[in-house]
Structure prediction request, 485 residues.
Amino acid sequence: MTADGEVVEDHTPRVSAVSHLATVRTFYLDIAQWAAEDPGRWGPWVAVCPIRAGELDHRKVATRRKSRMDQRTRERLPGLPALVAAVETERSTAAERLVAARAARPGEVFGAAGKTLRRPLLANSSESKAWGDDPVTGKRRDLEGEERRAFWAWAAVEVLRLTGIRIEELCELSHHSLIQYRLPKSRELVPLLQIVPSKTDTERLLVIAPELADVLSTIIVRIRNADGSVPLVVAYDNHEKVWNPPMPLLFQWRSGLEDRPLEPNHIRSLLNKALASTGLTDLSGGLLRFTPHDFRRMFLTDAVMHGMPPHIAQLVAGHRNINTTMGYKAAYPEEVINGHRAFIARRRALRPSEEYRTPTDEEWEEFLGHFERRRVALGDCGRSYSTPCIHEHSCLRCPLLRPSPTQRARIVEIHDNLLARIAEAKKEGWMGEVEGLKVSLAGAQHKLGQLDEMQRRAATVHLGVPSFVEVAGRAITTSNKEPSS
Prediction:
C-alpha cells in the first residue's frame, strides 16, 4: 500500500513452485501404492495424478537458483569495501565514546566522535556500566553495549571475508584452532587456522594472512582473562542437538556474570545493524542485506577470479565436489569477457578508424533527418540509412513500404484508378502504358493484402470459453429450476 492509500499488487513467480508440484504428485502416487497393498481401504481413492513427471523439471529450477546466487554476489561485491569501512569506523567511534564516558564523572558532559553526551547520575551506578544521555533528545544510550556490538560486528565481517568459512564454523573457532607449522626446508613458521569438521565432516587448514592475524590477535586480547587464558564456555550445537564440552571459543562475550558464546542468530543481527548504517541499497531500492554465506561466495569468487587454482579453492572451501567450487566462478565469466573484448579489438583493427570517430553535428542532423524522411503518404519507408530509393520514389511498387492501416482508403482509390487507366489504355491501344500500369496494380494489390493480414492478426478470436459470470449465472438458474424436496 502506498502513502496515498492505493493498493499495489506485485506478482512474482514462486521460487519453490516445483517443490509444491512434487508434493502433490507424491500424494497421488502414495495413494496408488497404498491401494496396491490394501485395495479395500485405498482403492476407491485412487485417481489419475494431474502432475506429469515432465512438469517437475529440477534442472530449470537449479539454473535459475544459480542465476540468482550469481546476481546476488555481483550486487554485493561492490558494496563490500563500504561495509568494511563502516564497521571499522563504528568500532573506533564506539570505543572512543566508551573511553570518554568512563573518564567523565557522573553528571559531567563529555564529547567524543563528534557527539556530546552527559553521564547520568544513578543511585546504583557501577564502574563497569557506562551510560550516556543525549542532551537534545534525552535518550539514554548504553555505550558499553554499543561498543561491544560494534566490535563483534567488525570481527565477524573481517573473519568471514578473509576466510570464507561457514557461519557454524565461525562460531566453533576456538583458541585451539590456531596452530603452527614449520616448513621442512626453510624452517619458516607458518600460522594455520584449523577448521573443525562441520557440513562435510572434513577438517581443513587455512593459512593465516597478516591481516587475518591482526584480527584474531585483537579478538584474543579482548576476551582473555588477566592471567592470559581464554575463558571456557559451553555452546549448544543446533544441528547435533547436544551441548558441546567447555571450549575456549573466540566468539564469546560477557553477558551478566558469565561468558556466553555468540550464536549464529546474534551474528546475523549484528550484520543487519551494521548494514543499516551504511545506506547501501540493492537494485530494487531497498536496503542491501548481507548473510554470512554471502561472504563465503564473495571470498571464493574473488579467489578463483584472481588466479587461485580451482582444486586448491576446493580444499580451502571444504567442498566435496569441485563442480560446487567452479559454480562460484560463473559469477564473472572472465574468459568470456576477455575473449569478447579481444574479438572487438581485432574487428576494430580490421575496419577503418574513421568509423569509430565522434560524428559531427552535420552528420548527426543528417542521420536524424533520414528517419524523418521515412514517413510517406501511404505509410513508412523501411530502406536503410544512407541508401538511395531504387524505385525512384514510386512507393506503391516498393517492397520496403510498410503501409499504414489508416491509408487503406487511399490505396483502394489508387487501385480503382489503376483499373480505370488500364481499361482506357487498352481502348486507346497504348500497350506500353498497360505494362507499366499492371506493375503498379500488382503493387497496390500486394499492399492491400498486407493490410488484410495485419487486420487478421490484430483481430480477437473468441475460443468459446465461458466467463465466470456466465458460469455463475447458469449455476444460479439451474438451482432455481430444481424442485424443492
About this structure: The chain is about 50% helix and 10% strand.
